[in-house]
Design goal:
Layout (H helix, E strand, L loop, with lengths): L5 E5 L6 E5 L8 E4 H5 L8 H23 L4 E13 L2 E13 L4 H14 L1 H5 L3 E9 L1
Parallel strand pairs: 5-6
Antiparallel strand pairs: 1-2, 2-3, 4-5
Helix pairs in contact: 2-3
Amino acid sequence: MKRTAKAHWQGNLKEGKGALTTPSGILNNTNYSFKTRFEEGEAGTNPEELLAAAHAGCFTMAVSAMLTAKGFTAKELDTEAIVNMEGLAVTAVHLIITGSVDGITADEFVAITKDAEKNCIISKVLNVEITSEAKFIV
């Protein structure tokens, strides 16, 4: 399986603009630029925001898969991924998951999330510190 995305760019770094498109159409000439990446106030996305979205989605699906493998079904799982940057380097990702799952303890939930933190596909591809935080709802 291969997944693709396309980026288009015109102009110099600071004044130029780009567009991102994916075959699914979810991103369809979506604006990205220096301003959407490093400044506030312009509508659009940036690579780090997209990385955070991809990691949040992957991690949440991994937690769900691990719960399923143990015979549990989540009532709900919500994840926030925070991508930290220093200069032009992604230095860390912190994942915060809140979940409600019948039949397990908070400690079991945390153990599953720690496993997913290290083993979801996006975590494996990143060469930065990745941490997570689990919030269990009874």
